[in-house]
Amino acid sequence: MNKIAMTEAIIMAKTQSGLGWEDIAARVGLAPVFLTSACLGMNSLKPEIADKVCAVLGLPGEVSVALQQFPHKSWDKAVPTDPVIYRWYEIVGVYGDTIKELIHEKFGDGIMSAIDFSMHIDKEKNPAGDRVVVTMNGKFLPYKSW
Predict the structure, then answer these.
(1) Is 36 helix (H, G, I), strand (E, B) or coil?
(2) Comparing 51 with 74, which gets the higher pLDDT?
(3) Could you give the residue numbers annotated as active site?
């Protein structure tokens, strides 16, 4: 089973179960963002966690095997057309250089890791309209001279 078929099976089982990503994540002991990313094919899971996901969703062992496979971590390079994903593209386009400058000013020349990394998505009630709160936490990795 490839990652595309795996994701399709997981989405179908998730829909049929009535569970949300946060529910599944709590049952298997992972953060919702990481679990969702793995189920969508962009990360891999350890065997015991992959097996738990399959048990929660009633999926066969071949899905567990696919969840354990290392992903290619590649994506379509075209400008995204999904409105939610496009907003992220727009945010990076508008604020990317600003984020880079402020990271360099605070930390020096380097990058924020997306490997030693966590992300949380929360909902904040607001009288003017609910707010999406995204918190990203990545280790700073300085460039080295040699």
Answers:
(1) helix
(2) 51
(3) 87, 90, 113
